[in-house]
Amino acid sequence: MSDELASPVTATAADQAPTDTPAVTTVTAHFKLVFIGVMVITVFTLAASLCIGVFVKEPTEAAKSAMDTCSTLANLGFGAMVGLLGGKAVN
Fold first, then answer.
1. pLDDT tens, residue by residue, 23-68
2. Rg of the chain on CA atoms, in Å
3. CA 88, CA 25: separation in Å to the nearest integer?
């Protein structure tokens, strides 16, 4: 049996794990303005839909249509907020 001495292996720059710092996402004033605007409209339309549904005892077709429209706008606003946050996270 032959005894071989293991030579120490030095790591090169390519072999080392990258030490990248995590990406920082900056939130600008314009993004805040758009996001808060969408959030306010979403909350307002959701509240309007709920008020029509709760306080109108016998809703007419117009009240039902307004409630459906407000509900749809609230759903779209929620989707827009998720899209804004997702788009900001990707950048």
1. 777 888 999 999 999 999 999 999 999 999 899 899 899 999 999 9
2. 28
3. 7
CB-CB contact of 49 with 70 (8 Å): yes
pTM exceeds 0.70, yes or no: no
CB distance 41 to 12 below 8 Å? no
Q: Are 70 and 48 in contact (CB under 8 A)?
A: yes
Q: Which amino acid is at 36?
A: I
SS3 track for the chain: CCCCCCCCCCCCCCCCCCCCCCCCCCCCHHHHHHHHHHHHHHHHHHHHHHHHHHHCCCCCHHHHHHHHHHHHHHHHHHHHHHHHHHHHHHC
- Amino acid, res. 79: G
